[in-house]
Automatic annotation (TrEMBL):
This is Cullin N-terminal domain-containing protein. One of its GO terms (molecular function) is ubiquitin protein ligase binding. SUPFAM superfamilies: Cullin repeat-like. GO terms for biological process: ubiquitin-dependent protein catabolic process. The lineage of its organism: Eukaryota, Viridiplantae, Streptophyta, Embryophyta, Tracheophyta. InterPro entries: Cullin, Cullin_N, Cullin_repeat-like_dom_sf.
Length: 174
């Protein structure tokens, strides 16, 4: 071990490799983290042990933000992007613009709640960016030109400006 590291850093490293990464002790931890990463059970309306997930994500942060980011946050954001890509495709095919934006708002609220209940606060902006990208930015043109969206009628020639601007413009159209 590097002599320049503090005792805490060395103990954290040993803990990470001997407890977290060891299949004999880490399997249950990873099963719980995988549930949090996929949070499919919670999205399906099932209960999850939020306190346990919060304790594990806090432990990962205590081991260092890079441990939290590598072991939890990055996979969580990747799975979330895939989930919201599929959800947005399903919603855009079945909703008008107003209903679609209400669903986006609900998804954003749910993710913010999830972060506040059991994830590190640094994840909030990242997950909201994922939801906005997958559900708004990827569909900006379609939302603007959607029948009864009001965008073309309301903004006329400004519609071309809206097409090239950020998702923030779409969020406030209602």
């Amino acid at each position: 071990m590097n002599m320049n590291k503090s005792n805490f850093e060395m103990l954290s490293e040993v803990f990470k490799h001997r407890v977290i990464m060891d299949p004999r002790t880490g399997d249950e931890t990873w099963k719980i983290l995988e549930q949090a990463i996929h949070h499919y059970r919670e999205r399906a309306g099932e209960d999850v042990n939020r306190e346990l997930i919060r304790n594990i994500t806090t432990m990962l942060m205590d081991l260092g933000s890079s441990v939290y980011e590598e072991e939890f946050e990055t996979p969580f954001l990747q799975v979330s992007a895939k989930f919201y890509r599929a959800e947005s495709h399903k919603f855009i095919e079945s909703c008008d613009c107003g209903d679609y934006l209400k669903k986006v708002e609900r998804c954003l609220d749910e993710e913010i709640n999830r972060v506040r209940q059991y994830l590190d606060p640094s994840t909030e902006k990242k997950i909201t960016n994922v939801v906005e990208k997958e559900m708004i930015a990827n569909y900006t043109l379609r939302l603007i030109h959607m029948e009864n969206s009001g965008c073309v009628d309301e903004f006329g020639e400004a519609g071309s400006f809206l097409e090239t601007s950020s998702t923030t413009w779409i969020i406030y159209l209602d």
